[in-house]
Amino acid sequence: MHGTLARRIRQGQGLEPADCVVRDVRLLDVVTGELVPTDIALCGDTIVGTYGRYEGRRVIEGRGRVAVPGFIDTHLHVESSLVTPFEFDRCVLPHGVTTAICDPHEMANVLGVAAFDYFLACAGRTVMDLRVNLSSCVPATPMETSGAVLEASDLLRFRDHPKVIGLAEFMNFPGVLGGDAGCLDKLAAFAGGHVDGHAPLLRGAALNGYLAAGIRTDHEATSAEEALEKIRKGMTVLIREGSVCKDLRALIPLLTPQTAPFLCFCTDDRNPLEIAHEGHLDFMIRTAIARGVAPVAAYRAASLSAATAFGLRDRGMIAPGWRADIVLLDALESCRVSDVIAGGRLVDDALFAAREVIAPVGLESVKLARNLAAEDLAVTGSGAARPVIGVIPGQIITTFLRIDLPERDGLVLPDPAADVAKVVVIARHGVNDNIGRGFVKGFGLTGGALASSVGHDSHNLCAVGLDDADMARALNRLAEIGGGFVAVRDGVVLAELPLPVAGLMSDQPYEAVRDALVVLRDVARGLGGTLEEPFLQLAFLPLPVIPHLKITDRGMLDVNRMAFV
Fold first, then answer.
1. Could you tell me if 521 and 531 are in contact, meaning their C-beta atoms sit under 8 angstroms apart?
2. pLDDT tens digit string along 357-388?
3. 188-220, pLDDT tens digit by residue?
């Protein structure tokens, strides 16, 4: 260790050549916003020289490009990218994301602590620095059947792992505010460390109580007014732009050089198709700047503010003694990434090829109690003033509607003329054979069915459609392929994407997932679908900790009252 320190000190002083010099760049000072011509000297994975000219054993030609600190995605679920951590690494790192803070919440709700073992093993081998927050809400709610239960004692054995930051998003804010013993046990176990928040629409005195528990961040703000109250009360707000939840445009008016220390960027859930079309954090940065945000504020939120909020004191600036995470841009305003240096290494295909890949887990986690038939999905009773989930495009918040639905032979039917389809959730963890049935407005379907094994947060099987036989066919097909996405019409599988890793992730390259998503999106549109991301929107319909009306394997749930209807 002393030898490494001595080398850094000598190279920083110019007493010996640096291991590597990034020559002739314009460095973005995230303190002042200035662009300063300089070289950057590196010793191993550490920056040792800036604001000068340096000699190096190896040279990376900057050619006048802009150098900015590596980007930090402050909250995401790798599972929601639909690929393994290794493919996520290969997909996202070229977009400048050198650090990603993930919550294996989705896999943990299926497999329990095995999800942490898997993610931490992967994190030790990715090229990017993948950090883990330990999932705080497994199960997310007692209103649905999960595949696992994690108590404070289960989390504690991982707390001191070098890749672990702290406790992940505390979704059960009603439990926190109500003093639930299990919630308090987890908060007490991680007191003094980092605790991520999850507090949609929480304001006023209720927000005060939530913050008094030591929770410091939130990625669920959907308006600038809500976000402003939260940062004024000491929270760091993580501005989110995922494949379904798109809050960037609503929140960026709040992002200024003054507020940037309290605002960061995150994607939460973003798939390879969206990344291919738009980008990742680079998309958020360029969009913010295009809408009038000062570049220094955007880049600070993507780097230094993020590092500070999560206690990563070795990164977020290009400065001596800091981790050598550097993004080289062809243009500052458009955030056009041309090269990435991660931990002092220039990112290329050889780095990815050299990784030792961890074998996937959870390959047989989809367990249906029986082969489903159309009659299993029937809804009986009255169609008058029937509770219906109202989808809000671009958000995971729903509305509670009451709509008169048609009846026939004692059955309540969907109404395509009113854009009302049937939605069902089928238990898939082998614990029981529960089936929740209901209705949803907003998918635009005119026929067929869509089904998914990604169903936040318990990840039971979800299907939406107009024909019970098609829905049953799609759900049974999910079980056959180990989970994924399926589209069916007239009993024929039109398209599918297998996700056999815990029923959440593909075992294929991200390019194959991207291409399959294109086909699925086109097929969904052919069924009349009007949503930009119909499968991901479907995946959020069972999320019971988000207001207002949700569907679980136990039925239709009024979240605001935490009661079934």
1. no
2. 999 999 999 999 899 999 999 999 999 999 99
3. 999 999 999 999 899 999 999 999 999 999 999
Q: What amino acid occupies position 14?
A: G
pTM of the model: 0.95
- Written as one string, the DSSP assignment of 209-250 is HHHTTT--EES---SHHHHHHHHHTTPEEEEEB-SS-B-HHH
Instruction: Report which DSSP code applies to 144.
Output: S
Alpha helix (H) ranges present in 14-139?
85-92, 105-111, 113-123
Both structure tokens of 317:
């600036």
Burial class of residue 547 (count of CB atoms within 10 Å of its CB; 0-12, 13-18, 19+): middle
What sections of 397-509 are H helices per DSSP? 468-481
Which residue type, as a one-letter code, is found at position 176? V
From residue 208, alpha-carbon distances to 98, 199, 203, 231, 254 in Å are: 34, 11, 8, 12, 21
Q: With beta carbons less than 8 A apart as the criterion, state whether 283 and 256 touch.
A: no
Q: Which residues contact 166 (CB under 8 A, 6 or more apart)?
A: 133, 134, 190, 193, 194, 195, 196
The three-state secondary structure class of 66 is: strand
